User: Fold these one by one.
Assistant:
Number 1:
Amino acid sequence: MDNFKFYSPTEFIFGKDVEQEVGKRLKQENVTKVLFHYGGGSIKRNGLYDTVIKSLNEENIDFVELGGVKPNPIDGLVYDGIELCRKESVDFILAVGGGSVIDSAKAIAAGVKYDGDFWDFFDHKTTVKEALPVGVILTIPAAGSEGSSAAVITKEDEGLKRGMGSDLLRPVFSFSNPELTYSLPMWHTAAGIVDMMAHIFERYITKSENVVLTDRLLESTLVSIMEAARVIITDPENYEARATICWAGTIAHNGILGVGREEEWTTHGLEHELSALYDMTHGAGLAVMFPAYMMYTLNEDIDRYYRLATEVFGVPHDYEHKERVAEEGIVRLVGFFNEIGMPTSLEEADAKKEDIPKLIEKLKINKGESFGNFTTLTLDDARAIYELASEEE
Amino acid sequence: MDNFKFYSPTEFIFGKDVEQEVGKRLKQENVTKVLFHYGGGSIKRNGLYDTVIKSLNEENIDFVELGGVKPNPIDGLVYDGIELCRKESVDFILAVGGGSVIDSAKAIAAGVKYDGDFWDFFDHKTTVKEALPVGVILTIPAAGSEGSSAAVITKEDEGLKRGMGSDLLRPVFSFSNPELTYSLPMWHTAAGIVDMMAHIFERYITKSENVVLTDRLLESTLVSIMEAARVIITDPENYEARATICWAGTIAHNGILGVGREEEWTTHGLEHELSALYDMTHGAGLAVMFPAYMMYTLNEDIDRYYRLATEVFGVPHDYEHKERVAEEGIVRLVGFFNEIGMPTSLEEADAKKEDIPKLIEKLKINKGESFGNFTTLTLDDARAIYELASEEE
């Protein structure tokens, strides 16, 4: 187990109807003026927008609104948000939505308190020294941004999708009501499920040794996610399954399951080029890239993949044929992704094999000539993984 | 899954040599004067006392000392600590030790900021509204107090051992270096292991339904604890096993494994009477009381005990004989406790069957005529459980 720091100060408020208390919770923070930040029309259609407005008004909390965050949130709206917060002397940002809204809120929160261009954080030219506090009402369990230090923003002009992180950006509070996810289309539910599973894989498929406790916690969470996903397919209003998915998405990325381990974000990096080029749903891109990455790196640590296969996917033990067992685990992962309606090849995700050179070009800008810690990948390796992802069977 | 709030703002700093940074970490808190609170001579013998003094001096941090905390910490020293903090204008308490030291620190932290008698918190006459911040260097993985909101203090004159909790008492930071536990005698190591397992049982043996994710997380932690314990018996300086125990002890009680579940603290209550009457090590008392409680309540929820037996203790499935399987799980738990040198009957723990009326008398004062939520126990039930615990086989 490696030395670690773990710091997750977010207050998680979870369950039925909890979002109705958001005004009261904000009152505790002694806010002067709130930026109510959200995405498209879904929160207006499902009544959450009205719930929030009512709760803010009941507590006489002054606020301004900024909607319009898109999936793969863009820099343009972040600049707008920073300007609005400064003009209106906003001292708290309430993000109501999924990871895109929360990430946009975090970027604004850091940008407001920074004299330079907020993109400097994503260029890793500087780190966050101060930020507005952010609170969350979560509507899409997926990115785990409600409990994480991370944010990912796309610089639209250049097609660059990049992440950064700071403990100062961990939300102060996070409301999550599983019932709010009943109306989420299966596509978004499934993409969110892939995203949280990917957050676990990035912690699980590493070279860290002697981390049996977190190995088991990661495996337990994966098994629970898949079990709940299979319930939701036929019963989208099953509270318990939705609750499992909501909470699993949070713990998959707030750090608790990865303490003392290396983390490996290579597959996320490979996927970011897909979602930047095609505006692809992040989870769909991960469903395409993860099996390909796993197959390509199988022999890097056959025991790790063997353990994944047996402990998570229920492949029977066969120590004489470890590689076969390990591969069968990946085959079952692909089967699961298909079962929940996710694409598992570039073509199924409406991406094109002939665009691979473009992906590699952007990858070179974002990640350099080589990257990764489970194994070091060159750009040639990355090309081979994209090619593996494009082979329709 | 029940609605829940989960809030664990403690910064956990974990691994080799981390305690050397305590001065730097305190500096971040802008402290004026620190109370350095500890127990007996063990930290002087193993060098930790000197490490702390050196680190405080390097950062020019002003401090006063208060040692002498005993296992089952008593009210007398808490009063001394409160007086000392007021006299010396202390604004931060650094607890260096195990649960007893940390609990004593928490009681002082709350007491300093309260005009009345600090015991009012433990009498549940009032709740904590304000407290000094507390930081921790953990030396005994057991109570989980380094990450919890709870504290337990014994009122010496009346032999009352009581607990209370407040999120204001969650430590600001907690250092844990598994190497510091190498020199811990096996008895204390084992008692700590029982304590953390008990914290898991109090969350696991409940009537909460549809909590499969936390069921699995709890089971994973139990399995990992027992596996590591068996390594430590023969190899007390095995870093990885010690690290597993240290971190498991923290997550067993900071709340993360119990979200959305009922909690059941009845067995802790039954044990508190033992440690109050005999000054028994808390973990040893729990090793005596838990199997008895489980056996007595077996038919309250046979499926729960069946699951415990099969998932944690590896008892083979036999749906035709659920009760036998469930009982076998408890038998294996007793076996494990014996394996690590813990007593599993009153007599083995130097307690006497004829004292049961005294235990019941105190229990009545502390818990009333009936208590519990997994099942409601009367004082007659409690008597039967103590009697069950006294049957030597």
Number 2:
Amino acid sequence: MRTEISTLGEFGLIRRLTEGIELKNKSSQYGIGDDAAVLSYPSEKEILVTTDLLMEGVHFDLTYVPLKHLGYKSAIVNFSDIYAMNGIPRQITVSLGLSKRFSVEDMEELYAGIRLACEEYEVDIVGGDTSSSYTGLTISITCIGEGEKGKVVFRNGANETDLICVSGDLGAAYMGLQLLEREKSVLHGADKNVQPDFSGKEYLLERQLKPEARRDIIEKLAEEEIRPTSMMDISDGLSSELLHICTQSKVGCRIYEEHIPIDYQTAVMAEEFNMNLTICALNGGDDYELLFTVPISDHEKVSEMEGIKLIGHITKQELGCALITRDGQEFELKAQGWNSLQEETDPIEKPE
Amino acid sequence: MRTEISTLGEFGLIRRLTEGIELKNKSSQYGIGDDAAVLSYPSEKEILVTTDLLMEGVHFDLTYVPLKHLGYKSAIVNFSDIYAMNGIPRQITVSLGLSKRFSVEDMEELYAGIRLACEEYEVDIVGGDTSSSYTGLTISITCIGEGEKGKVVFRNGANETDLICVSGDLGAAYMGLQLLEREKSVLHGADKNVQPDFSGKEYLLERQLKPEARRDIIEKLAEEEIRPTSMMDISDGLSSELLHICTQSKVGCRIYEEHIPIDYQTAVMAEEFNMNLTICALNGGDDYELLFTVPISDHEKVSEMEGIKLIGHITKQELGCALITRDGQEFELKAQGWNSLQEETDPIEKPE
């Protein structure tokens, strides 16, 4: 079944997509339907605002990304930015630019994914804009969240001797993307009857197609009364993000190859693709894990936290930023993270 | 001079565009440079959030819209939505999708327009996202503003016997667009040396290319202690907006053709184009004037306000929505306002 968007028009489409949306957060006073949404936060909260623009062909490839997954991920990447400030996401606005290629049902799929993410993370959809587009799909989401006054964590607070911590594991989403790209080229090749074989690689696909934001880590840190000195989420790759923290904090760092958390499936896949596993973990994008620093006095507490790995420590700025390999060599860290404006020749390689 | 964006990369471009930006509003705690911006509003304020997505070829045509003007207007349309809630815009985030056609200098022009609008309206740029795009220019702006608690004005509060008011004049921006479109087709015709002649039509062009948001009206209403019962800004045309107010307020209305405010240049131009002037004023988009209703007890106060016209009154819902023509005939009001998803065949006709 395919209903043309033109049969509903802008307002009809918005009505259809947003039907039944209820506001659940106390701070969401008035949602969709007026010139602006109305929010109300108590004055002891800081308000956090982040925004992401996703363009078809640059950030996603609809030949292998289902629209529902895309919707889910579009919301998650924004939530992740709010958690990375030690905050809690509360509202989003969703703007969509749609070419005629898309039907009402397509948009329902996309929106179902966004709504699912919002349900799971208790975030309200409070507004947006919908427009036609001459080409492809554009998704622009803005997320508003809250932080406790004085407890928001920036990138610029890392101090010498702080411990560098990472949640979860790295590189799996990047490997998932490699896998999808490979299957795409196989499918576009000679035999269209070959079905992709993803068995044993489910984790990689899930990390790429249905990432989660690390709310659980933020909650645990609060429970343990650990307040990171700096934090950000890893969307462009560990190297790139760690360099942001070091530059903004005016410090250097040492991280240890052997401590970088990598899943078994990621390692197997890197072997299969004949890729350097550490480089994948350092530079692969789309992990949405949290990278943060804590004072050395929190060593015990943080080492006991499940799902957190200590990967190194902060140094004086003069010492620069380096990776210590398993055999004890030192390599300068470089940002080879995905940069959507530099790698236009093959921008789908490492989406943000 | 043309600097390719790829020579700077995403972070370099953002640095260049946002250089020297200072936060001026007390509510702007931390702007560009982290995972999210940090805002701080006192609890007696409501927080207003609005967003607009502008796509090249749909909402603007760069063959006759200078990038600086486009930047200015992109910001203004968002400010206008905040004023329409009886609020004050305070912050924006700016997301840009750029194809290779655009240079660093182009983006500086666009940003100069956005920054100019922000200076004039005392709004801070606190964040955004920049990405490559396979086609054209995409601009997604989210604006955050504040309203006094209990004084935010919605679309749904109009009551029977309320007076219907409009600021400024209508239809001029639409005529400006017709003029630009005509000159474009002339220029794309045989003789490329013909220079467009816009003398005596400056007002129409300004309304289309450099609209303003009606902060002054919001300030005057507050001074006069007039609190509108409903309000919205006119971006899609008076008819369409008035129908929104009537539907959401569950009322009807009567407006009078003879009272619709129209500038002299708009009238001359409609004559020249052989267009029905009233239809242009009712359905032309891009006016960014305020449409609001006030209790009849405010009749005296509101009729003395400069730049405000009373165009009719609110009725019972059963009476429907109608225009009374100069010769006393009644016509049902219909929304022929611009709808970017319905009129894809000629979407540039009436941008939002």
